[in-house]
Amino acid sequence: MIQSPLTAYKETRVRTASPGQLIIMLYNEAVKQCDTAMELLEANLKEKPQHIEQVNKAVNKVQDIVTELMASLDFEAGGDIAKDLFSLYVYFNRELMEANIAKDRKRIGSIRNMLDELRGAWVQAAAQTQGAGGEGQSGVNIAG
Fold first, then answer.
1. Residue 48: its pLDDT value, please?
2. Does 9 fall in a domain?
3. pLDDT at site 138
4. CA torsion, ordered 60, 62, 64, 70, to nearest 10 deg
5. Residue 5 placed within a domain
6. Left if phi > 0, otherwise alpha if psi is -120 to 50, otherwise beta: which for 93?
7. Is 127 domain-assigned?
8. Predicted TM-score (pTM) of this structure
9. Is 125 strand, coil or helix?
């Protein structure tokens, strides 16, 4: 099977990414999918009912990503922060499910904004650990 250069690049980027970079990639995609869902909802579902399926796909992708973020949490190393993130991710998935059922752009936007804030925090954390000598440094665990 011949792979496109873009696909090969993306796969290599994921395989060579640090744990912090992987988390940021997940957040990036979650925010992107929220934006997609909101744009489709903006297009008025009554005029374009085919968007319902696309909105559903985008929101489901966000839920899958949030579930992956939940699975990546290290409760032993992360302590209260990991527990708080887990609770937040549970909330995100519940809100996304309800927003998807109601096709509620505002609720999706609210989750999108919170995901974006968390992404910013991970970007800062990754930058700090890289500045401290790399993410592989012992004692620093930003996975999840």
1. 66
2. no
3. 36
4. -140
5. no
6. alpha
7. yes
8. 0.79
9. helix
The CATH number linked to 70 is 1.20.120.340
Residue-wise burial string across 53-80, b where 16 or more C-beta atoms lie within 10 A, e elsewhere? ebbeebbebbbebbebbbeebeeeebee
Contact partners, residue 109, CB within 8 Å, separation at least 6:
34, 38
First-to-last alpha carbon distance for the chain, in angstroms, is 34
- Number of independent structural domains in the chain: 1
Sign of CA dihedral 106, 96, 79, 127: negative
pLDDT tens across the length of the chain (144 residues)? 667 765 554 555 556 668 889 999 999 999 999 999 999 998 766 666 678 899 999 999 999 999 999 999 999 999 999 999 999 999 999 999 999 999 999 999 999 999 999 999 999 988 888 765 544 443 334 444
Instruction: Report the alpha-carbon distance of residue 14 to residue 21 in Å, rounded.
Output: 9
Provide the domain limits for residue 71. 19-131
**Amino acid at site 6:** L
Q: What is the pLDDT of residue 39?
A: 93
1, 16, 34, 93 from 9: Cα distances, Å: 16, 11, 24, 30
Helices (H), 43-104: 51-71, 75-102
Which tokens sit at 128?
């700090």
